[in-house]
Amino acid sequence: RTPAQPSVRWDEFNQLGTEMIVTKAGRRMFPTFQVKIFGMDPMADYMLLMDFVPVDDKRYRYAFHSSSWLVAGKADPATPGRVHYHPDSPAKGAQWMKQIVSFDKLKLTNNLLDDNGHIILNSMHRYQPRFHVVYVDPRKDSEKYAEENFKTFVFEETRFTAVTAYQNHRVRQQRINSAPFIAVRRSRPASPPRSSLR
Amino acid sequence: RTPAQPSVRWDEFNQLGTEMIVTKAGRRMFPTFQVKIFGMDPMADYMLLMDFVPVDDKRYRYAFHSSSWLVAGKADPATPGRVHYHPDSPAKGAQWMKQIVSFDKLKLTNNLLDDNGHIILNSMHRYQPRFHVVYVDPRKDSEKYAEENFKTFVFEETRFTAVTAYQNHRVRQQRINSAPFIAVRRSRPASPPRSSLR
DNA sequence: CCCTTTTCACCTAGGTGGTAAGAT
DNA sequence: ATCTTACCACCTAGGTGAAAAGGG
Q: Where does the T-box domain lie (chains A, B) (predicted)?
C-alpha cells in the first residue's frame, strides 16, 4: 500500500510555487517531508531514504514586477546526486509504521564541495523530492532481488524551486505564518562606518 | 572482550564520593555513562541497556561539619526497578562499535509515580549502575538461549549517592569545573514581599 | 533540623530571515 | 541586474545550579 504524505501544508505552498532555501552550510526543508507508512513486515528491517531529481533541464529567474517565474535558459551542470538516509535506518517495519516518519534532519546546500553529506542542488532550478523504501533482504544472494526490494514514491505537491533567498513575497509570508515563532525583524541597528581610517 | 568505561572523570568524582542529582522531572547523570565496545558481531543486532542496583540496604545522611557521609538507618522501601534502553537500540554491532556509546539521555528521578520512563531512585541511597548487552537472537526458540545472549558489565567507579541537592561542597565545585559553561550566579534580585495584602 | 520542591536567571546548541555587502 | 554570501539579532528547546520556600 502507498505511504501517505500529510499534505495540507505542502498544498498551500505548492499553490504559490514552493521555494526552498539552500545555503552553503545547509538548510532544512520547510515544509518538512514526512510520510505515514503502511504495509511493511513489522519484523523485517528497512532503510528509508530520499533523493531529489530535476523536474526539467531549465534554469529559472523570478520577475518581481510580474511576480512570476520565467525560464532563464538551460540548466546548469547537474549537481552530485546524493541521497539522504533517514538517520533511524535501518529499523524494523513496526518501528517505521508506529508513527509519522519525518525527514527533518535533511539539509539542502548549494555548495558543490559540501562535506557534510547534505543534498546538493542548483539554486534557481526546480526539483522533485523522491522517497525510497529498501527492504533489507536477509538472503545471501540478496543482490539478485534488488529490484523487488526497492520501492519509490513520488508526491508531486512537494516540488519546489531551490533559491538562496525567498523570491516570491507571498511564499516568505506563508513561511512566517506557518511558524509563528519566526522573528520578523524590522531593521538592524546602524552599523559603525566601515573604515574611514583603515 | 570487556567494554571500556572512559573513566578519568568518574575517578575524579569517585574520590570525592560521587553525588547524582535526582529531581521530580528527571535529571541527567553527570558524569555521563559511556562505553567503548569491542568484539560484537558487526552484522548482528544488539540491545544496550542500563539499570541501577542498591549498593547496600542503608540510608545515608551528610554531616556538613565533618564533611562525610554517615549511615542514617536502614534503606527505604525499594523503588520500582526500571531499565533504560539506549534509544538507538536495536542496532547492528558495527554501529555500536563505531564510536563511544553515550547514555546521555538517561534521567534519574525520585518520583515514585514517574510516568516518563525515567530511572527511579531513593535520594540519600547509594547505587551501582550496570550495563547490559543483549544479543538479538534470530533463532525461533531464542528464549532458550537467553542466558548466553545476555552479558552484564559493572564499573565500580561509577557508584554514587543519589541526592536532591549537592551535599559535599567539593563535589559541587568539581561539577562546575567540569563544565565551564555552568553559570555561578551570585545572588537573585530581591523578590517582592510575598503577600502583605493577600 | 534535615531534606525536598519550586522557581528562575542563565547557559548551550542550533535553526531562522533580514540586511548589506559581495560577486558575476 | 541579478543572485549569493556573511553576519547577526532573535527565536526555540532544553538543561543547570542557587536561592527560597515548603514539609516532616
A: 10-187
Q: How far apart are CA A135 and CA A115, in angstroms?
A: 28
CA distances in angstroms from A175 to A35, B18, B48, listed in the order given: 21, 49, 41
Q: Which residue places its CA closest to the C1' of nucleotide D10?
A: A183
Beta carbons within 8 Å of B144's beta carbon, 6+ residues apart: none
Task: Enter the DSSP assignment of A4.
Answer: B
Contact between residue A159 and residue A127 where contact means Cβ atoms under 8 Å apart = yes
* Cα distance between residue B154 and residue B17, in whole Å: 17
Separation of B68 CA and D21 C1' (Å) = 27
Cα gap A47→A92, rounded to integer Å: 9
Q: What is the C-alpha separation between B14 and B8, in angstroms, rounded?
A: 10
pLDDT per residue rounded down to tens, chain B (198 residues): 678 776 678 999 999 999 999 999 999 999 999 999 999 999 999 999 999 999 999 999 999 888 899 999 999 999 999 999 999 999 999 999 999 999 999 999 999 999 999 999 999 999 999 999 999 988 878 778 878 899 999 999 999 999 999 999 999 888 888 775 665 544 444 433 333 222
Q: Where are the alpha helices (DSSP H) in chain B?
A: 8-16, 93-98, 169-178
- Neighbouring CB atoms inside 10 A of A85's CB total 16
Write down the pTM of the prediction.
0.83
H/E run at residue A170: helix A169-178
